[in-house]
UniProtKB/TrEMBL annotation:
The Mn(2+) ion enhances activity. Mn(2+) binds at H130, H334. InterPro entries: Amidohydrolase, Bact_exopeptidase_dim_dom, Peptidase_M20, Peptidase_M20_dimer. This is Amidohydrolase. Belongs to the peptidase M20 family. Residues 1-26 form the signal peptide. The keyword Transmembrane does not apply. Residues 150-250 form the Peptidase M20 dimerisation domain. It holds the Pfam family Peptidase_M20. Keywords: Hydrolase, Manganese, Metal-binding, Signal. GO terms for molecular function: hydrolase activity; metal ion binding.
Amino acid sequence: MIFNKTAGWIRVVILLTAMLPVASLAQNGGNLYKVNAEIEKKVIDWRRDFHEHPELSNREFRTSKKVAGHLRSLGMEVTEGIAITGVKGVLKGGHPGPVVALRADMDALPIVEKTDVPFTSKVDVIFGQHMASMLEAGKIACKSGPIMAGASDFKIIVQGKGSHGSAPWSSVDPIAISAQIVNSIQTIVSRNINIVENPAVVTVGAIQGGNRSNIIPESVEMEGTIRVFSDEDQKFIYKRLTAIAENIAEAEGGKAIVKVPYTMEYPVTINDEALSSQMLPTLEQSAGKNNVVEIKPITGAEDFSMFAQKVPGLCYYIGGMPKGQKPSTAAPHHTAEFFLDESSFVTGVNTMTNLVLDYLDMYPEMAGTSGEE
């Protein structure tokens, strides 16, 4: 969703909340919190409805229809069908000013969005928030600079020569070759990457080969993930991974076909340093100064990073863990036990609303100067 400033009143949609005219916090003495508190139940009801009717990526037909319909009811210019089911809502102001974009997920599972959508509205900054099941409700976690890893995947196909298990000397065993490759992959980070400066991860997460206990197969396939915090490390890991697999396979009489990146490649999520410093008071205002904590970089990845490559971005986390619970006992995201304390949702609403209002008030003379589309 994209917003710019009006004469003195702006209307903001945060997480599809009900549209109400509000002034900036400075002008309105904090009435915005009262407005958001009044619609908290509606926010929770929406969340529960979407949670009860999950839709996979590019299949969010019910969800996107509800989103588009609500945005239209608020008087926004709505575009549907972006990358199949994406929805964009634009609220235009009557005076020059900066332009702010807000982004929200609506798919039931994290996926790679493969699209090249021509955005017609110029955006100055973008804010993104993510729930955190291991951060106490009411808290906000953020940091300047790299906050989430760049991520890519790989696939290695090891080709050998099959034989009966009773005569392994007749084979070029792709399982034995693959075992050597997996072990050697573990040295890419431990013996080549300065993890004090930039952490990195190379993990083999899937391997398939053979279907009988007494048959050596013709081939083995493995897939894995790479996480980095610098483009240089990513390029090095690609090169090293390829060399290890190909050379080990060749030395054993086989062949390795390496596909990296395989299906996806996310850049590092980097919070703009100037924007982070500029908006820190807003985060502290939203949750309380003592409730805003600085976190270390996370090796998870986020497609918000692609937007942040185009314009200055700020990504942060809203705590969703019940107060008093130990983080070690909280279920991680994307697990069957995943749970969020719903009292945290209004913190997210307040934070995104404040970020938009405060940023627009900072630059009343600007008019979408980023030049990116």
